Amino acid sequence: MTEPVFAVEHLSLAYPARRGQPAARILHDVSFRVERGQALTLVGPSGSGKSSLLRCLNRLEEPSGGVVRFEGRDICSLDPRRLRREAAMVTQAPVLFDGTVRDNLLLRPAGIGGDFSDARLGRTLAEVGLDARALERDAATLSGGEKQRVTIARALLGDPRVLLLDEPTSALDPPNAALVVETVLRLREARGLTIVVSTHQPELVRRLGGELMFLVEGEVRTDQRPDAFLAGERSAREPAA
Amino acid sequence: MSSGVIDLSPWQLGLALLLVAAVMAVSIRQALGLQRDLALGTLRTIVQLYGVGLILAAVFAAARWYWVVLILLAMTGVATHAAVSRLSRPLPGAYSIAAAALTVSTVATLAYVIFVVVQVHPWYDPQYIIPIAGMILGNSMTGAALAGERLQGELRARAAEVETRLVLGFSGPEAVQPLVRSALRAAMIPTVNGMMTVGLVQLPGMMTGQILAGSSPLVAIRYQIVVMFMLAAATAVGSLIFVRLAARCYLTPAQQLRRYLL
Questions:
Q1: Shortest Cα distance from B169 to chain A (angstroms)?
Q2: Which chain B residues touch A if contact means CB-CB below 8 Å?
Q3: Hey, of B152, B158, B163, B168, which one would you mutate to test binding to chain A, going by the most A CBs within 10 A of its CB?
Q4: What total number of domains does chain B contain?
């Protein structure tokens, strides 16, 4: 039997009191598994701990309790740089650096091998629905949706097995959000990627399928379905009649 | 024309005090509310400089290496405290970092200037080592404080950039390198700009002092040239060590950014 891609057991995350700020409990006793090629969608209100959970999977945060296993190994025993290349994270607000789209796609540590030819960059852009001619464009001139898709392409160039997407559509208008949803669905289909995504986007939840996890105040709620929450999100996104 | 120094009598210092009285009048007239600070500042200027003068006179007269080292240690302690107190947010280990940066930059620059460039005998001659060390420490302190302050600001403003590099597989030091570079530039720019305009806008304090004390302007400029180069080196070394060590405080061994420190 193959190991799950992620096995999370009793994960807790808390920040101690600092500089006048009270101690904060971010995640409490969270357990779940994500099998290879599967999708897990994290939903929940703002501040429920979805982003923090993704950051723990990518080891940008150090849990205060519990264990996260990646393909059977405790992530504390792995080189975080390697973990982050194999489980690539795309953040909520796309961060692109000064320069062209090509400069941004080529941004990686020295000594990382692989094919970074223009042909491959062009193919990867095509995977996220962008034209290869975009390589020459100044990254600052891209729309929000294009920026987000370039950050997904940048993550894909490391040939990850998992994509961790932190509210990839929340900073986008509906047409751009729809394009990013299409991109994620296409990638899952074409590359067989395992996907863990946090989102408020009911359309992404519905079309991605897979498992759904409802987080409220840092805890997994198994006693209720997030239907009412998602219905509320849907009506908030639809224009008033 | 006399080349000697005109000694200033207490009566002449009293006349100089009239200049402060003029500032006081401006403050009262324009309702600046600076009278109390001005009075305190005037008093501190007199007391502190007389105090330092008496200590230096005693050290100069004794000419013992251990007194000189003790004075240098005290100066380094004060400079360390001043550099740390300029940081806008607390940084764990800031005192050790500042002390290490200022000590290394001062010892290295001072040793080169005293032993190699000026070739002072004995090396601890207080007439040379104390003013030169004072200038080096002052500039290292300003450079380290500017670099530290800038690094903290850059980390707060560009945390998302740093984490983007981390998620792309960069190590912590690689991820903060552009911010470190920016902090070092901020620390070095005043020194480099000073080298561009030295002598054109105003005569530097040390050169002015030497000329007033009767030195030939040609001797004074040679010393000033050494001082300018020495200060550039001290600022670069001090701010480089400070900012490199400070940047490490914001990173964990697991290549994470300690966001709670920002």
A1: 4
A2: 90, 160-161, 163-171, 174, 252, 254-257, 260
A3: B168
A4: 2
The least confident of A100-104, B80-84, B171-175, B212-216 is B212-216
- Residue A175 belongs to a domain: yes
Q: How confident is the model at residue A237 (pLDDT cuts 50, 70, 90)?
A: low
Establish if A1 belongs to a structural domain: no
For residue B216, the enclosing domain spans 64-261
ipTM above 0.85, yes or no: yes
pLDDT at B107: 95
Give strand pairing partners of A214: A43
Q: Cβ separation of B168 and A109 shorter than 8 Å?
A: yes
Q: d(Cα A220, Cα A9) in Å, to the nearest integer?
A: 12
A18, A60, A85 ranked by CB distance to B169: nearest: A85
Same domain, B41 and B80: no
pTM of the model: 0.83
Say if the Cβ atoms of B260 and A85 lie within 8 Å. no
Rg (CA), chain B: 22
Q: Is B167–A88 a contact, with Cβ atoms under 8 angstroms apart?
A: yes
* Buried b / exposed e along A123-149 (16+ C-beta atoms within 10 A): ebbebbbbeeebbebebeebebbbbbb
Q: Based on the fold, state whether residues B81 and B192 are members of the same structural domain.
A: yes
Could you tell me the residue range of the domain that residue A114 belongs to?
6-237
Whether A124 is in a domain gets the answer yes
